[in-house]
């Protein structure tokens, strides 16, 4: 028995630009194939709703796992933290090689498999593909606590901003 997750986007409330962003997210997800990235399966429309079918990560997100461990007064072993960190670095290396900025890297966008030993990067909703080798993004997007200084200062930024967010 296999489970999937359905991300739904109500298109009736969206501007033309937001419609394009939703289409871009699907196109981006379709391209990605890496063991540490949540797998895209399919998409379809149900009336005015875009439905994106993706791999279900039974362990939930890393932010919730950390909070649960804290509440239970339990620690996550350093070896496990390093294992997660390396896996996220591998996912970042892959998307950056594909010229993709994630732009919202945080623990609530990192998902755990049932084994709790595999972490996967997800939520590419505000990601951006850089076309040229020296192109930089300028739009201020993301979660404030995880934003690099150049994003906060409304300056052009590159893949280094994702690395900064990982350190937060």
From TrEMBL:
GO terms for molecular function: ATP binding; protein serine/threonine kinase activity. Residues 1-168 form the Protein kinase domain. The keyword Secreted does not apply. It catalyses: L-seryl-[protein] + ATP = O-phospho-L-seryl-[protein] + ADP + H(+); L-threonyl-[protein] + ATP = O-phospho-L-threonyl-[protein] + ADP + H(+). The keyword Cell membrane does not apply. Keywords: ATP-binding, Kinase, Nucleotide-binding, Serine/threonine-protein kinase, Transferase. Its EC number is 2.7.11.1. It comes from the Eukaryota. It holds the Pfam family Pkinase. SUPFAM superfamilies: Protein kinase-like (PK-like). InterPro entries: Kinase-like_dom_sf, NEK_Ser/Thr_kinase_NIMA, Prot_kinase_dom, Ser/Thr_kinase_AS. PANTHER family: CAMK FAMILY PROTEIN KINASE (PTHR44899), SERINE_THREONINE-PROTEIN KINASE NEK1 (PTHR44899:SF3). This is non-specific serine/threonine protein kinase.
């Amino acid at each position: 028995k296999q489970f999937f997750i359905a991300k739904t986007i109500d298109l009736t409330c969206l501007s033309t630009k937001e419609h394009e962003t939703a289409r871009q997210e699907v196109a981006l997800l379709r391209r990605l194939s890496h063991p540490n990235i949540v797998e895209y399966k399919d998409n379809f429309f149900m009336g005015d709703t875009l439905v994106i079918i993706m791999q279900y990560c039974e362990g939930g997100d890393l932010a919730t796992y950390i909070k649960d461990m804290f509440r239970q007064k339990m620690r996550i072993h350093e070896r496990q933290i390093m294992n997660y960190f390396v896996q996220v670095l591998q996912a970042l290396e892959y998307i950056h090689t594909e010229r993709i900025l994630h732009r919202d890297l945080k623990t609530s966008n990192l998902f755990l498999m049932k084994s709790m030993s595999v972490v996967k990067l997800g939520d590419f909703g505000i990601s951006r593909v850089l076309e040229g080798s020296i192109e930089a993004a300028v739009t201020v997007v993301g979660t404030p606590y995880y934003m690099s200084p150049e994003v906060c200062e409304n300056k052009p930024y590159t893949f280094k901003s994702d690395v900064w967010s990982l350190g937060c």
